[in-house]
Design goal:
The protein is of the alpha+beta class. It contains 1 helix and 10 strands.
Amino acid sequence: MKKEKKISRRNFLKIVSYSAALPSLFLWMKSAQGKIAAAGKREIVLPLAGIADGITFRDSVIFNKEDEKLKIFSSSCTHLGCKISSFKNGELICPCHGSRFDGNGNVVNGPALNPLKEIRYSIDRKKETVRFYV
């Protein structure tokens, strides 16, 4: 017959407190991650009305707006980082090596292997603005 090992009250309280602290730590790190990601980046706030339907190039981003749907991409080609500023025949074209992307940022023709980086944004419906970081 095996003798059961008893856990001390102190050890029990340690286990309970660590178990309660871990989810809190995880949530704190998750919220801090967004703030750290935004740190060092430039905040852009634009009026929604200023973004035309279809493909629009502005500074270092590409907007794809279809009615109420909006996608924002980095204009840097994922091949070597050249700035994409051309949209022909339904495709975004890199001027350096000819990589082509569809309106959703997916690679149509290489040498790029990865899709364009999609940029997260938020819309303030009261102010009718879009906010993102680059």
